[in-house]
Specification:
Blueprint lengths: L1 H26 L3 E9 L5 E11 L4 E9 L4 E2 L1 H14 L3 E6 L2 E2 L1 H7 L4 E4 L1 H8 L1 H8 L11 E2 L6 H17 L9 E28 L3 E16 L5 E5 L3 E3 L10 H10 L16 H13 L3 E3 L7 E3 L13 H4 L10 E2 L7 H11 L3 E20 L4 E7 L7 H11 L15 H4 L8
Parallel strand pairs: 3-5, 4-6, 5-7, 8-16, 9-15
Antiparallel strand pairs: 1-2, 2-3, 9-10, 9-16, 10-11, 11-12, 13-14, 16-17
Helix pairs in contact: 1-5, 2-3, 4-5
Length: about 425
C-alpha cells in the first residue's frame, strides 16, 4: 500500500506541474494542449505533457514541454528522448521543466541544441515560490477569482412565510390534539460548497486499418463530476430535481470495499467465486464483513453463502451530470451566507475519485457554491431540529440537513413531519403564501 500511495502522490505532483506550466503558456498567448499525442514523421506516436503553439505573422512556433516533478536530477537520457520527439514531430523547441535540477551531462547534451532546461530556481522565478510549493505538495490547480455559484430559483421569503405558517399549525394541532411544541427560529439561504473535478477518461475502442483489419486504440474523453466538498460524496445534478445523493455511500467506503463492489458489478457471488485484483482472501473477507455491516451486501442462508450487492457501483463517470453541465453558473456568488466549515482536502478528493474509476485521471478542480434554504426549529424543551431545502427545486435534502446538524453540534433531530414533504409549489409564488 505504501508503494501504491507513493506512486499516486508522484502522479499527482506531475499533474500539478503539468497544469501550472500549461496555464503559464496560456497566459502568454499560446494555444495549449495538455497530455496529448502526436504522430511523428517516422510514424511513431509520442505522448506530450504540454504542447504549446503560437501563431506569429511570419512564423508558427511549436513547443514540446515535458514536466518532471521530482527532487532528483534530470539525466542525459531524458534530454536525448525529448530531442528525438522534437525532431520527429518537427517542433521548434523542447523544454524540460523540473522541480529538481539537471545533471552536468544533461546540461552539456542540451547545450547548442533545441532544448531548454527549466530547473526549480527558474521555475520559481516564472511561477512564484508559492506555486512551486503547491506542486511539491501535489495541490491541484484551483480556479482563480470568486467561486462560481448557482442562483436560487425559489422565492426564499415566500418559503420562510410558509414554513412559519406550517409551524404555527403544528403547535395548535387539530382541536388541540397532536400539538408539536416548536417554533421556527430562523430560515436563511446558505451557499453550500462543492468541488467540480475535470476528468480524463481513457476509453478502449477499435479503429479500422485498411480494408479488412482493425486495431485496438485508446481514446481520451473529458468529463466532469461534482463532489460535496464537506462530506466528499459524489453527487448527481439535474435541472429539474437539483442535487442527488444516491451515490453518497461511496465516500464512506475504504479502498478494499470499493474494489470488491467494482469486481462483482452488482452480481451475486460466493467467497470462492470472487477474485479482486490486489486483495488477499483475508482482505476480501474483511471487506465483505464491512459491506454487510453497512447494509451494502446481503447474505443468503444456503451453503455456500451467496452474497448480493444492494447498490450498484456507478460504472462510468460520464453518466453523472455535473453542476456546470446541468445548470447555469454565475461568475460571482449570489446573495446568501456561505457555509463556514472545514472542507475535504482537494488532494484527498482527487485520490478518491481516481480510486472509484480505473483509467480516470483528475486534470483540474474548481470550487462551486450551490444554494440551500436551512430552517431551524426551536422546541420548548430546548432541543433543535433542522430542515434543508434545495433552493432550485424546493425539495427537502436530508443529506444537507444532517450535515448542518453535525456542524451545529446537535444530535439528529425528529423525523420530518408528514405535512412538510415538499413545499416547492407553495414557495414558488409569494401570492399563495401571504398571511
Amino acid at each position: 500500500m505504501q508503494a501504491e500511495e507513493a506512486r499516486r502522490t508522484a502522479q499527482q505532483k506531475g499533474l500539478a506541474l503539468e497544469l501550472r506550466v500549461a496555464r503559464l503558456f496560456e497566459q502568454r498567448g499560446y494555444e495549449v494542449a495538455h497530455n496529448t499525442w502526436l504522430r511523428g514523421r517516422s510514424g511513431a506516436q509520442h505522448q506530450v505533457d504540454v504542447l504549446a503553439r503560437h501563431a506569429a505573422p511570419l512564423h508558427n512556433s511549436t513547443l514540446i514541454i515535458e514536466a518532471k516533478a521530482y527532487a532528483g536530477a534530470v539525466d542525459k537520457d531524458r534530454i536525448l528522448k525529448l530531442l528525438h520527439i522534437v525532431d520527429d514531430v518537427g517542433a521548434d523547441r523542447g523544454i524540460i521543466v523540473t522541480t529538481g535540477r539537471a545533471t552536468p551531462d544533461a546540461l552539456r547534451t542540451a547545450a547548442g541544441r533545441a532544448i531548454d532546461i527549466w530547473d526549480r530556481e527558474r521555475l520559481a522565478r516564472l511561477l512564484g515560490e508559492t506555486e512551486v510549493g503547491a506542486v511539491e505538495q501535489a495541490a491541484p490547480v484551483r480556479g482563480t477569482g470568486a467561486e462560481r455559484a448557482v442562483a436560487p430559483r425559489i422565492d426564499v421569503e415566500a418559503l420562510h412565510t410558509e414554513l412559519r405558517r406550517t409551524a404555527a399549525k403544528r403547535r395548535r394541532g387539530t382541536l388541540g390534539i397532536g400539538r408539536v411544541a416548536e417554533d421556527l427560529a430562523d430560515c436563511r439561504l446558505i451557499l453550500y460548497p462543492f468541488y467540480e473535478a475535470e476528468l480524463e477518461v481513457h476509453i478502449a475502442d477499435t479503429q479500422r486499418v485498411g480494408m479488412f483489419r482493425k486495431q485496438a486504440v485508446t481514446r481520451l474523453s473529458l468529463t466532469h463530476v461534482s463532489i460535496d466538498a464537506v462530506t466528499g460524496a459524489v453527487v448527481t445534478v439535474d435541472a429539474a430535481h437539483g442535487i442527488g445523493y444516491e451515490h453518497a455511500w461511496l465516500a464512506d467506503l475504504g479502498h478494499d470495499e470499493r474494489q470488491l463492489l467494482k469486481a462483482v458489478r452488482g452480481h451475486s457471488f460466493t467467497l470462492s467465486s470472487v477474485a479482486v485484483a490486489g486483495l488477499s482472501e483475508t482482505r476480501v473477507r474483511k471487506a465483505i464483513a464491512s459491506l454487510r455491516a453497512c447494509g451494502l451486501l446481503e447474505a443468503g442462508h444456503a451453503k455456500p453463502v451467496m452474497y448480493r450487492a444492494t447498490r450498484s457501483f456507478p460504472p462510468d463517470p460520464r453518466a453523472l451530470a455535473s453542476l456546470s453541465e446541468a445548470l447555469e453558473l454565475n461568475e460571482q456568488a449570489t446573495d446568501g451566507e456561505r457555509l463556514r466549515c472545514e472542507t475535504k482536502e482537494p488532494g484527498a478528493v482527487i485520490a478518491a475519485v481516481e480510486d472509484y474509476w480505473p483509467g480516470v485521471r483528475v486534470v483540474g478542480m474548481a470550487a462551486l457554491l450551490y444554494p440551500f434554504v436551512v430552517a431551524r426549529y426551536a422546541h420548548d424543551d430546548g432541543s433543535v431540529r433542522f430542515e434543508a431545502f434545495d433552493a432550485l427545486t424546493g425539495q427537502r435534502s436530508e443529506h444537507v440537513a444532517d450535515v448542518i446538524r453535525r456542524l451545529a453540534g446537535y444530535a439528529p433531530g425528529a423525523r420530518p413531519l408528514p405535512d412538510a414533504d415538499s413545499i416547492s409549489s407553495a414557495s414558488s409564488s409569494s401570492s399563495s403564501s401571504s398571511e
